[in-house]
């Protein structure tokens, strides 16, 4: 089974873990979106800037989507890129919504950035009965031989690069009483890349970017040789990834008190 990994490039750093920036890639499998939010015209809460492209796709598919982000500069960037989205400045650990406001909460590439105990309780509170929390991470598909050869070359310079690692946030979801049953699916995604694109992404990896030129040249030569022996010109090589998805239905019976729905509430939109 594929597990969330430290993909090579483009790196988005959170400590020592590198995650593929899902917002920057085209070709995301529509079947993954449909599985993550199976309801028709659902009210969806998308969490964080990493979920922006998914939020835009779900909005285009007819869902009523609200995206939250607690960094104002990120909200402005999202507004500029996706003007049709409804945005709210808020933290996942303290949601400004009434109970049972959404049929689905979705998080792409971002659950590991949250405090799981607080955030999961808030997600459970704002979900309707039968609503679901859905997580998505892009993971490396290392079943392809040239990908394994590339990983072997890179790990001589950075042993942690392109290595498998469990995402603790997924473990936290599986252990949370508000979400007792977690379903999992994986979908294939291919990302085209040119020879120069591969060399650039290798050069931009945090530890590799600091290599002395005498060390960097043999590395780039080895990476170029892998590309040349694997690509079929004029077609670019394609990086294989899996979109690893988890979906869990909320269980409100675990709440110690009733979820009281107020007659009205305050919501600040950007």
Could you please describe the fold and organization of this structure?
The chain is elongated. The chain has 270 residues and is α/β, with parallel strands linked by helices. The termini are far apart. The longest helix has 18 residues, at 213-230. The protein has eight helices and nine strands. The strands form two sheets. A seven-stranded mixed β-sheet has the order 5-4-3-6-7-9-8. It has a two-stranded antiparallel ribbon with strand order 1-2. It has a domain at 11-141 and 163-192 and 241-253: 3-Layer(aba) Sandwich (Rossmann fold), CATH 3.40.50.
Write a brief caption for the model:
The protein is α/β, with parallel strands linked by helices. The protein has a domain at 11-141 and 163-192 and 241-253: Vaccinia Virus protein VP39 (Rossmann fold, 3-Layer(aba) Sandwich).
> What fold name stands as the CATH topology of the domain at 11-141 and 163-192 and 241-253?
Rossmann fold
- The CATH level-2 architecture of the domain at 11-141 and 163-192 and 241-253 is identified as 3-Layer(aba) Sandwich
**What is the count of helical runs?**
8
Task: Specify the structural class.
Answer: alpha/beta
Mean pLDDT across every amino acid position: 84
Instruction: For the largest sheet, list the strands in their spatial order.
Output: 5-4-3-6-7-9-8
Oligomer: single chain
Poorly predicted tracts of residues: 1-25, 265-270
Work out the strand percent. Answer: 25-35%
**Can you identify the CATH superfamily of the domain at 11-141 and 163-192 and 241-253?**
Vaccinia Virus protein VP39
Terminal CA distance reads: 40 Å
Structural Rg: 20 Å
Helix content: 25-40%
CATH class of the domain at 11-141 and 163-192 and 241-253: Alpha Beta
